[in-house]
Structure formats: C-alpha cells, structure tokens
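Chain A, query sequence.
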Amino acid sequence: MKISIIQTEVSYKNKRENISRVSSLLSAAKEIGDLVLLPELFSTGYIFNEASEIHELSEKFAGSQTIESLRSLAKKFNTVIVAGIAEEDNGQYFNTIAVIDKNGLIDRYRKISQTNIDRQYFSRGNQLTTFKYQGVTFGVAICFDLWFPEIVREYSRLGVDILLHPSNFGGEQSLQISRARAIENSMYVVTCNRVGSDITKDLTGIYRGCSQICSPDGNYLIRLGDAHTLATVELDIDVSSPKQVIAVDLNHERDSILSQLKTNITKHN
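Chain A, predicted structure.
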C-alpha cells in the first residue's frame, strides 16, 4: 500500500486556488500512492473572524464542486483522495473528511473532538468511519481527535490497519501523540498537516507542517519539514493476517494496581 501525503499551503478562503495547488503537485509527482491524504479543511483554511465566513464556504456534498474536482483528480491519477472539506447538511455545519474515488464520494467522517475554534463554527460528529481499500482497513481521525485515546482504541477494536490523521496544528504535541497512538494500538498513523497561516483580527494560526507516518512499532517512515510538498511512502501491510485486537478490562487493571499499591504501602509501614 502506497500513500501520498500532500502537505499543502492553504490559500485562505480560495477553494479554486487550493484545488489547483493539489492538482499541480499531483501532476508534477514522479509517483502517486494508491491513496492521497490532504489536510483538515484544505480548501478553505481553519480560523475565521466570524462563523458566517466558514458557513458561506461550506458545501452540501451532493453537488459539491470541491468533491467533483477531487473525483476528477482521483480518476485521472487512479487513486483515492481523502480530504478535509467544510460540510453543510440540513442547516448544520461540520468539519468533515471526505473519501473520494473515481466515481465520487465513498464515505465521510465528521470531527468528534472539538477545539474551542471548532465549537464556534461546527456541529460535533458522533460516529467513527472505517473503509476498506485493497484489502486494508482504514480509519479517520481529525487533528484534536488523536488527543483522546478512547477514539483510537475503538478504531483498533474495529481492526483498523491505517489511521488517517488530517490536521491543522502548530505545536509539537500532536506529533508526539500520533506516535504514541501508533504504538499503543499497533497501527500505522498517517498525519497530514498543513503549512502556512490563517490571520484574523483576534488570532493568527501558524501551521508547522512536519507531516509524518508512524509504524505500529513507533518508527518514523517519513517526517517532512515545512514545505508545500507531496511525498509518497510504501507501507508493508500483511492483509492475509487479521489484525489482533487485545481487549483490556480497565476496571480490573485499575483494581489490581490499587491493590498492589496498598500491599506495598502496608509492607513499607
């Protein structure tokens, strides 16, 4: 399974330009993966002065021009594209990841773990998303989702081989958390972060890039810098061997640890 990360510099509120930048990187690439991952909200930016600004940019996925453009690129380059797009659905707005192949929209994931910024603009998602492609099981988590181990643990229980992690972050913590989740859950974690900045009257977001792929044993298969770029990596996955999911009784583990601590304290006294 080959995966391409597009670490794009987002042109603020300019969907046409952002799609053009993705198209240019794909056209110039020597190799394109079986799946192409784009950042969270790649077509619009993430921080706005007013919620109305991102709401005006949000799209109903039936008839979405952004999805149609990505469908055309998926067909042209014989790949599946996974991309962050602001979605409108029945008067609600979501920070959404769309999964798109040559025929159009396959599936979607709506961000569950909201930052203070998300809560100003978007409704909260309420379900996980998995899909199979070439025998590999994928899950999707957006940026801050990875800070909550329960989400990734549930994906592990569902047999996910590769967790796709589109992001907009500026700090180092998310990079370390991505690696921790890969090790904890014995899965690949593919983090695609953007570069550039969003500048509003009250807040400036500066995005570090540093997209990376962590293997289940915590090794880095690639770590990018802060450039607008496309990189392709091959992941070695044995789909003939089902993923082993380990169920842990957390209450039993807690009680066992507390019991041991009490025993040690008694001995010490």
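Residues 245-254, 260-269 have pLDDT under 50 and may be disordered. The two ends are 57 Å apart (CA to CA).
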